[in-house]
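Q: I have 601 residues here and want to know how they pack in 3D. Can you give me a structure?
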Amino acid sequence: MAVLTEYIKRDNSRSMKAHLHNLLAKSLRTLQTQGELPADLDTTIHVEHTRDSSHGDYASNLAMTLAKAAKRNPREIAQQILDTLPQDKAVVKTEIAGPGFINFFINADANRAVVQQILNAGDKFGRAKVGNGRRVMVEFVSANPTGPLHVGHGRGAAYGATVADLLEAIGYDVHREYYVNDAGRQMDILATSVWLRYLELCGEEIVFPANGYKGDYVWDVAASIHRGHGDAMRIGAFEVFDEVADDEPAGGDKEAHIDGLIQSAKTLLRDDQYRLIFDSGLNYILDDIRDDLEHFGVNYDEWYSERSLTDSGAVEKALMRLRESGHMYIKDGAEWFKSTDFGDEKDRVVVRDNGQSTYFASDIAYHMDKLERGFDRVIDVWGADHHGYVPRVRAALEALGDDPSKMDVLLVQFAVLYRDGKKAQMSTRSGEFITLRQLRKEVGNDAARFFYVMRKAEQHLDFDLDLAKSQSNDNPMYYIQYAHARVASVMRQLADKGYKYDQVHGLANLARLTESHEAALFTRLSRYPEILEQAAVNHEPHQLMYYLRELANEFHTYYNAHQFLVDDAAQRDARLALINATKQILANGLNLLGVSAPESM
């Protein structure tokens, strides 16, 4: 037990892979100090799991990566590394294989020690300090508040929230932000659409514009305004449409038509009336988005207003910095940013010929503001259709004198729904997309959160609605949750059989667990910290999902092959300690994915 206790004392926030990495790093420094290797040697130490257990548990190619710079035979370097490797009781054997691989064989007690580490740390197990408190902003979803969230937004929400949680779990100080596009043309179209519906409620006969917002929510906002203000903002339809270009159905230009209606609204209504209509639409939809996301388990530290960038002078400040640095010019009455100087495919308008700044100008100011707020990294989660927008934003940051490498853009592909093996219609007859709320209602929050992160974000996602709802082993979420519930069921059966669980006794007898299924579980559990770190630093939640599925498979296989509630108290308590550690890791992982860990199913 003394040896086991020594392993338990080791920092449980780091994996065995990280532990071996540290041992190799110490050996490398010793060889440099001795003059056996160049002092200015720059190399990355890699430690990987072996595919064949006969080659040990872990292997490193360090000697081979050093050979060229050191001008030495890699096997010779490997031997020197092993000769200076610090003694460690977790490592029972090392060997040099092939052209210079260093193989490590791990003491079985070291793997078993993970059970007590897990049970001691609980939901903190695997959490690390890799981030060292560095401040990271994750901005995600940020959909225009012109309508409810649809299933496409849902994938960005699940992915962004999980990436933020993973980064926080490995020691970053994470700030979650939603950028509210509460200014600009689309919001003016929404306000005008609300006003036109309001006029209909006042009794006016309106030919609604082809590209106005037609959702039922527009009627709801208009009705609320009419209930509160009656006909106070009624203007005759003839006056509203006077001098407005024809709409598309009449052979006209629908864009010019809606722009004309926006101008009518701004001209015919007092500023306070237009602002009331504008804000009514904005707040109604924003409240709906906020409520939808909160019920989806997605919460933010800040909802950042685009409008505030203009009100605070941030947009003008950004533009002035670009002017002063010589990165702006005037053409055709508009002001352009010379983004081609920084690798963009063409220059970009930031101030139109009418003096109005563009959406891109606000985006420049927003990203400038992000870095001015002291974040070490800013992560934007965007739809894949925004990939062309990345170079221009990075170009602007570089032109401003900021460090564009501090900005990461994670692109999320659209999700395609399937039902009965066939592609489901993504929109209704009215052209409205299936909403996130509708999806959540059909498959549940757990399945939506889980299935949204099953693939790399940049890959297209086929979302199988039938599979997401099924209670079968083919459903990976159900399979994982069922493993958690099965452990809980075993613990409930204790009393029925007249047994009691003594955790301390179980931990003291872990060495009795020598079955192959038990060894597989020990190994899988010990890998959780490194999987968590990899999933976080690579922004790949699906890595954690795959790990949990493999862990669940190890448990189900063990469950089907062995009895846990045996008469032998030492073996029984040891097995119960092992499966309770498994249950804890399943819960930890599911929680990071935003999915519940049920006690019964």
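Q: Anything worth noting?
A: DSSP finds 24 helices and 15 strands in the chain. The longest strand covers residues 173-180.
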